[in-house]
Amino acid sequence: MDSDLSPQDKKDLDKFIKFFALKTVQVIVQARLGEKICTRSSSSPTGSDWFNLAIKDIPEVTHEAKKALAGQLPGIGRSMCVEISLKTSEGDSMELETWCLEMNEKCDKDIKVSYTVYNRLSVLLKSLLAITRVTPAYKLSRKQGHDYVILYRIYFGEVQLSGLGEGFQTVRVGVVGTPVGTVTLSCAYRTNLAFMSNRQFERSAPIMGIIVDHFVDPPCSSQRPANMGQPCNYRAPDEEDGGPFAGVQDSQEVCTTSFSTSPPSQVGHTHLLSYQPPALAGAADLCHPAANPNQVRHQSVYFTFRQIVETHQYRQYHWLILNVSVLLYFIPLSSGDDDGLSQSGEGRRDEGRRSVSPSDPVESLNAFTRKVGAFVNKPSTQVTASLDLPFAAFAPRGLDSEENDPMVQPPDSPPCPSPLQASLHSQGSEGSGQQDDFVMVDFRPAFSKDDLLPMDLGTFYREFQNPPQLASLSLHISSQSMADDLDSLPEKLAVYEKNIDEFDAFVDMLQ
Amino acid sequence: MNCRSEVLEVTVEARQVEEAMLALLHTILLHRSTGKFHYKKEGTYSIGTVGTLDIDCDFIDFTFVRVSSEELDRVIRKAVSEFKDALNNSGSDGMGQISLEFYQKKKSRWPFSDECIPWEVWSIKVNVVNLANEQERQICREKVGEKLGEKVINVVEVINRHEYLPKMPTQSEVDNVFDTSLKDVQPYLYKITYQITDSLGTSVSTTMRRLIKDTLAL
């Protein structure tokens, strides 16, 4: 078989297959990163784009692929497989699909390696780009984030499809005949995702004696490593700026594609591919932009409230509100803890901050799911639907059933020479027992100067934070307008009845 | 040489026509486009690089890959938009067909014009349905996404049979095989045509021909 192939053709073919395998892995893993891929066309050949396709190389993925290949090439009986699996935040995992690059014995001895095989491998890569967006795992990968992540694993050798469950489907991406065998690329994907939804609900407490990782490790197989794979945002630790994975490892294998328009019968007249040592700048271009450490980790970042609570960012976030806002916010204490109330000035603010950060983030999450005004924590008995609005104080009085609520009728601010000396827990300001849950934050507007002007920003806000109620919002005027509305109701009803056909036609149009 | 002909059929809602056509046409063109050729001395040439772009559909649960070329995208969108308008204007029973034909030019001697010889024709038959409520639309969104996925697999299967492709041309003949008008990519020479079928199942062009024939016969 190989004796018909010239040494140069054999060398070229091996190189094509090797780089085809590496690019295949890149396309598959990048398609499961969870984000849209965009690469630019270039009218001039860059010398580094194998198969004339702009497919960036994530260094870690190349490293994993080379590790799996271990210097071998996909061949007859030696398949390269990329397994894509899903892992939930509870630790459950499930294989979704397995992509296989295989070779069989069927040879095409007449095919020209450096022309036809190369172009067909290019077409096969384009097909792979298209098919990776069609299998069910693509949609799952686009939604990965807090609840689950997508992992990949590369292995070499025998194809293992047992983890895909019953009824898995297979799609063939394409085949390319070569003088040493036919390269086949296919994907087997799971169809039964119901397994995952059932497992998600099996959250009963573990019975004593069962190992927690009982369902995590895959079925044992001599060729199957213990780990489930790398996340599709994987980045090896201790790596900066691409590190040892920068660019193409084999410095001699940058491809400059140059083709001949001579008829195929004149093979050997001009050697068709030349290799150039990579320019360092060019090699850098091969790196996926994820050489920037932050960018590799990028998936959709869902800044759920739970995440905010569970990290110290919550404290920073809350303090940011206090410092730059022009409104007065009430910070709740953590379940009746009074430690934050007593001192004055800076110490008080620090105490308030500490009291805001509860020891149990879940508890604080529960506390904050009840919305009463903004950032207010009230006992459940005092929570009403009408108050479940930020700034409910500015709603018309008719909606408010709790007249003593400080958010509706804020108490008069105590006379104080300087806002800096206002107490967090001043008796004069908190006129009602219901305000025990509220902590007045020492108000320090950002960028304001202290006591240098007759009226600084802080004083201005304190003085005008309790404006008198607008006349139009007073009860007797609103009730008067309601009475007028009721009186005019019969007339309006008569008009509507007259135009009933018009309304019916409108409704029909909408359907 | 016989022209290879493939037919794809899709049933979509009116607002999905444009995206469904773009998805299929771009998928085909992705496989039938190369980088720009740069001819050198001694009869060799190098090829530019083709970039790709993921496009999410708004009215279909589907993402497709197209060539990263705004010029090519504009041309395809214009053709699809004309097809969509023609479908909308044809009446409520929207049925039509859009064809993407790849051809080669064969030079003829003066005074005869160059001959266009198709070597591959993709016909996409579209059947437009009207849906009654939002729930049906949601189901249609998912189902059409799955159907388009199947069509992409069909396209890939045909293309990877590696049947006839024009030979790589010399510099003087490149315009007979490839569309060299774009600055970033080079698709094979192609043209897009469409036909609208009226509710009687006959195409508009057929009806016009019959009318003219009947008029002349009188």
UniProtKB/TrEMBL annotation, chain A:
Provide the residue span(s) of the region labelled Disordered: 338-362, 398-435
The entry's localization annotation reads: Cytoplasm, Cytosol; Preautophagosomal structure
Q: Name one GO cellular component term.
A: phagophore assembly site
Q: Where is the composition biased (Pro residues)?
A: 408-418
- What are the protein's UniProt keywords? Autophagy, Cytoplasm
Q: Locate the Autophagy-related protein 13 N-terminal domain: which residues?
A: 91-195
Annotated InterPro entries: ATG13, Atg13_N, HORMA_dom_sf
Polar residues compositional bias, start-end: 420-435
Q: Chief localization class?
A: cytoplasm
What is one process in the GO biological process aspect for this record? regulation of autophagy
The UniProt family comment states:
Belongs to the ATG13 family. Metazoan subfamily.
Name of the protein described by the UniProt record: Autophagy-related protein 13
TrEMBL record, chain B:
Q: What Pfam families is this protein classified in?
A: ATG101
Query: Which keywords does the record carry?
Result: Autophagy
Q: Which segments of the protein form a coiled coil according to its record?
A: none
- Keyword flag Ribosomal protein: no
Q: Which GO terms describe its molecular function?
A: protein kinase binding
What is its subcellular localisation? Preautophagosomal structure
Q: Which family does it belong to?
A: Belongs to the ATG101 family.
Q: Which gene encodes it?
A: ATG101
Classification via PANTHER family:
AUTOPHAGY-RELATED PROTEIN 101 (PTHR13292)
**Example of a GO cellular component annotation carried by this entry:** phagophore assembly site
Task: Identify this protein by name.
Answer: Autophagy-related protein 101
Biological process (GO) annotations held by this record are: autophagosome assembly
What InterPro entries does this protein map onto? ATG101 (IPR012445)
